[in-house]
Amino acid sequence: MFKIVHAQFIAPGIKRFVIEAPRIARKQRPGQFVIIRVNETGERIPLTIEKSDPEKGTVNIVVQSIGKTTNMLNALETGDSILDIVGPLGKPSEIENFGTVVVMGGGVGTAMAYPSASALKKAGNRVITIIGGRNKDLVILEKEMREVSDTVFVTTDDGSYGDKGLVTDRLRQLIENGTRIDEVLAVGPIPMMKAVADMTRKERIKTIVSLNPIMIDGTGMCGGCRILVEGKSEFACVDGPEFDAHRVDFAVLVQRNAMYREAEKLSMEEYRQGVEKKKATAAEPEVACALEGKK
Amino acid sequence: MSTPSAPKEPPKKSSNPLANKDRMKIPRQHMLEQLPQVRNKEFTEVNLGYSPELARQEALRCIECAKPACVDTCPVGVKVKDFVQLIVDGDFLGAAAKIREDNVLPAITGRVCPQEDHCEHGCLLNKKGQSLGIGYLERFVADYERKHFDIKNIVKATPTGKKVAIVGSGPSGLTAAGDLVTKGHQVHVFEALHEIGGVLVYGIPEFRLPKAIIREQVDYMRAMGVEFETDVVVGRTVTIDELMGEEGYDAVFIGTGAGLPQFMGIPGEHLNGIYSANEFLTRINLMHAYEFPKYDEPMVDFRGKNVAVIGGGNTALDAIRSSLRLGAGKAFILYRRSEAEMPARIEEVKHAKEEGIEFQVLAAPLEFLDDGKGWLKGARCQKMELGEPDSSGRRRPVPIPGSEYEIPLAVAIMAIGTTANPIIRQTTPGLATNKRGYIQADETTQKTSRKGVFAGGDIVTGGATVILAMGAGRRAAKAIHEYLTTGEW
User: Is the pTM of this model over 0.90?
Assistant: First the structure.
């Protein structure tokens, strides 16, 4: 069991957990992730590590409510526990002084990009960060990113904050302005990472993406997270999660991530009904408790 | 040994009342099984075991050879003749204790060990007809112990003050742990997954090895003093060097098991509906996907569909028999050699056929076909014939030109072996591996190139069997004990 020391929503549907996991806290490097299992009947899913504190023995994870497991997680509060957390998994990011690096975070992907941005800055790079979300509320970690970047650009789809448009629009502007870019690191939804890859391929800018396929064990044993890289199978958990964006077959990634869509819908629907039932009957137990107390 | 009922005195005179010729007249006793048409829809155990009467009747068949080959052919050296004699005596707990002197997982090996390749192959009766049912007897005794022995009665060994880390809780790790804790060493087992047992838990289906049995055997080891820690990927969560350094372990045994699943590298292998056997079995066994949505891990809908498993080993058979239990309409094995070359256990092949599995041998897929939406719809296959023997000693499959054919398929499961997991290799400087990435270890001591570090099981040999991994764990435990006592490397 891993205790949640602190849990707080940082945006609508996006929650940060500070979790007691001393072994993981000691070893975590930028680019790595954890796999969690919420309870005895839970599935195993990979999640982003935002940062860790080796002295306090805690790791921060940032979770967006999407399916049943992430909704169950985000219903947990400070003081609750998560049954299993294993990590840090995957290869750490390659961190060296490349020159100028553009770090791009789309939505909750920003949490995964943050530790790499921080390490790239420490390694002496000029870090230009572009983060974005659908609207103002969904732009996360802006303050943290500003602390580790030379420049931060923010974009929102609806223009409610920063520039109206996509993170890739801002990248295009940088390229068109003739900004020297030695590397791009992009973490976010698959369409965003693919768009970045398409844009930088033409410019021959080295581009790294962090991929999040379906996983089970996270140690290379099951092969479920296989990515098609220039026609060859590579496993995101041991060969990644970071890959050369120009070699990845994004279409296969999209297709494989959709493999359990029906089951995921069913799980989510059952979970939602369960929560509503609980809410509907929430008043009754109080009455029962009060009666118990009288006896 | 920790069990008080273990007899220490030399084997007493046989209490078997029958003369050898009468013993040989008794036919081998069959174990009860669930009916094929019932069990192929259920994940409950196929074999039902012996009754005490059947067990004793079978035990009476043992002719008590002066030099029992059954013991020599056992990778962990179980004293077969002695425990069988205790069954004849009716001392079933004594028999269990006798097995435990050499094997800490009797209820597991009694179910999954390929006895026909080891003890039963060595059995003299085998040459005169049917070998003694040693596996059945071991299973009976172990199950009797599970029901009648209270683990509170286990006496812990006197502590030596030495600490050993075991990396991986599969058969080799558990065996090493059991042997070492008996010697009084402090033993701590690290497991990457959330359950103890390694391949026994994620790989072997419930209908061959119920999970409850693994848990009980692990509880037994806990009672012996073994400590277990889940959710630790050694190499990532903590390195071998950190274990030997700041964590203060005097020795480490690496038993991380089979590695990354292999794929064929043919077109279409990324289609939805194609699994590695490891992933498919992990979803079923570890994650209970067959109980979705009670459990959250999902599985592709198998009901009424055509399912093929590519391969001919025990893993392939576990996968196809599981597919049938998920409701597959037609379930078949696609194997490139003939049935004679199949590495699977005879019993598993027999069980699979009874359950309605079809065997398409001398055939292999060339390409998986897309339904246009990214899902598997079939395979283009090629027929094979057998040529000259290859490096494995088995006759090599040779493609027959012009023999290509298509089959409709909704699910394909690849059970064609594994390659070495790179995590420990990449994170342990100075640990020698061979050109295929497996850890190099001495064949008798399991010593690696790093002082204090031992390795055994599939991470050394490549994919093998539970009992061979256990043998390696045993040899390692012996050598670790020697190293810890003498300090000599």
Answer: yes
